[in-house]
């Protein structure tokens, strides 16, 4: 009789999990073992509807054959090649494909490996741009309260989520923040872009008066803030930021890590919202999360200033060992081809009205104090339990998972961002399960 090898149970001790309550999880593990289409599956084979596209990133759904085969084929041809003073063709092809999707005049692409690296890269490019133009006094970076730009020291400094900063000292100097746009009473339960709050962009004029325009290099914002709980920009707000930046020679950076690649029904949020930045960061949906990759696209004038304005030799002393990694580039090309062939942004636009109605149907449930949406994103804000902030949302997250639906929580806000291949029955199940969990956690 053949001996059967039984795998030993997982050892949960060694892995220090990111952004997790490690003690709770290791006492109460919830595991995912595989994924396909709109669903994850537990090790026991239980189906979990993905209401978050992983972490805002699997826009084309899970297990896409086209992406898998592109990675496999590339691994057999070229597994890795350095990109310092050398090149490999597929990185150039991937950059060209991205440039086809970005707004006109943003044709230069720098590769990173994550949204965090993209944020820090964008900030460094902004500083290098002003220095190349003889304005080296422009060293100040402006973010926004409740902004999220990853976990590098640059993005974390410019970001404005207190919980991400309080454990760490020695963040970047010369940083200031605009006020966030959340909490305007007239905007509660707004559908799409809220009507009130464009005036908050004028706070940038106050920072210019305080610090001097000649000291400010860039302003970085998310077109729609995701990780802080789905904060949708008021009508006219981003346009006003663009006007003030242009007036004072300040670069405007959009962090499109969440809003890029179809999430708002267009290739990028800049297109949906009608405002073109000078620099744009991306990651997540770029490769459908199959291989880590990020990128920064810049206006041609920014590239030309840095490259043509530098002495002979290396123009930008920045980059990563894995910039433009062959497998990541192959995954990106296959992903962008899927977006084009299946018109994933168009699919998002088509189902957006149904999605919006479904999300706002939760309005009358216990403890729901606001609902926000834009594209295929929704945020359901809950009243916290007295003395136990975040606990209500966490309990809803766990209850939903146990009932076969994955949602994401940030503070006391449930954030939803499903794959763009979602269909109406999926929406019904997602919102229905969430509604039952909200009712169950009413106390």
TrEMBL record:
Recorded GO MF terms: beta-alanine:pyruvate transaminase activity
List the PROSITE patterns hit by this protein, alphabetically.
AA_TRANSFER_CLASS_3 (PS00600)
Where does this protein have coiled-coil stretches? none
Source domain of life: Bacteria
Q: What are the record keywords, sorted?
A: Aminotransferase, Pyridoxal phosphate, Transferase
**What family is reported?**
Belongs to the class-III pyridoxal-phosphate-dependent aminotransferase family.
What is the name listed in the Swiss-Prot or TrEMBL entry for this protein?
A: Aspartate aminotransferase family protein
* UniProt source species: Paracraurococcus ruber
């Amino acid at each position: 009789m053949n001996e059967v090898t039984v795998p030993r149970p997982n050892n949960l001790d060694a892995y220090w999990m990111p952004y997790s309550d490690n003690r709770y999880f290791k006492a109460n593990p919830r595991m995912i073992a595989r994924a396909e289409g709109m669903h994850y599956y537990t090790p026991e084979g239980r189906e979990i509807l993905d209401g978050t596209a992983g972490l805002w990133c699997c826009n084309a759904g899970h297990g896409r054959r086209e992406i898998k085969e592109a990675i496999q084929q590339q691994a057999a041809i070229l597994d890795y090649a350095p990109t310092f003073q050398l090149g490999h063709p597929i990185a150039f092809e991937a950059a060209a494909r991205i440039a086809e999707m970005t707004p006109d005049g943003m044709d230069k692409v720098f590769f990173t490996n994550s949204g965090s690296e993209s944020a820090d890269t964008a900030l460094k490019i902004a500083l290098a741009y002003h220095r190349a133009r003889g304005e080296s006094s422009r060293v100040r970076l402006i973010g926004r309260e409740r902004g999220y730009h990853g976990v590098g020291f640059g993005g974390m400094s410019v970001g404005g989520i207190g919980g991400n900063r309080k454990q760490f000292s020695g963040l970047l100097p010369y940083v200031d923040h605009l006020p966030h746009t959340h909490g305007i009473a007239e905007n509660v339960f707004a559908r799409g872009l809220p009507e009130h709050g464009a005036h908050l962009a004028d706070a940038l004029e106050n920072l210019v008066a305080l610090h001097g325009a000649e000291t400010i290099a860039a302003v970085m914002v998310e077109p729609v803030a995701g990780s802080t709980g789905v904060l949708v920009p008021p009508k006219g707000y981003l346009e006003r930021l663009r006007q003030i930046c242009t007036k004072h020679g300040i670069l405007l950076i959009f962090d499109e890590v969440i809003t890029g690649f179809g999430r708002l029904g267009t290739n990028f949020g800049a297109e949906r919202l009608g405002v073109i930045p000078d620099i744009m960061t991306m990651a997540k949906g770029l490769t459908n999360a199959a291989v880590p990759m990020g990128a920064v696209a810049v206006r041609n004038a920014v590239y030309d200033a840095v490259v043509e304005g530098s002495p002979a030799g290396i123009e930008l002393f920045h980059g990563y060992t894995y910039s433009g990694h062959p497998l990541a580039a192959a995954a990106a090309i296959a992903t962008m081809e899927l977006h084009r062939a299946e018109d994933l942004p168009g699919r998002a636009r088509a189902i957006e009205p149904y999605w919006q109605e479904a999300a706002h149907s939760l309005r009358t449930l216990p403890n729901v104090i606001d609902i926000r949406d834009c594209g295929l994103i929704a945020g359901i804000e809950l009243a916290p339990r007295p003395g136990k902030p975040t606990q209500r949302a966490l309990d809803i997250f766990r209850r939903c998972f146990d009932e076969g639906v994955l949602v994401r929580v940030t503070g006391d806000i449930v954030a939803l961002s499903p794959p763009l291949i979602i269909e109406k029955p999926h929406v019904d199940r997602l919102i229905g399960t969430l509604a039952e969990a909200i009712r169950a956690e009413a106390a």
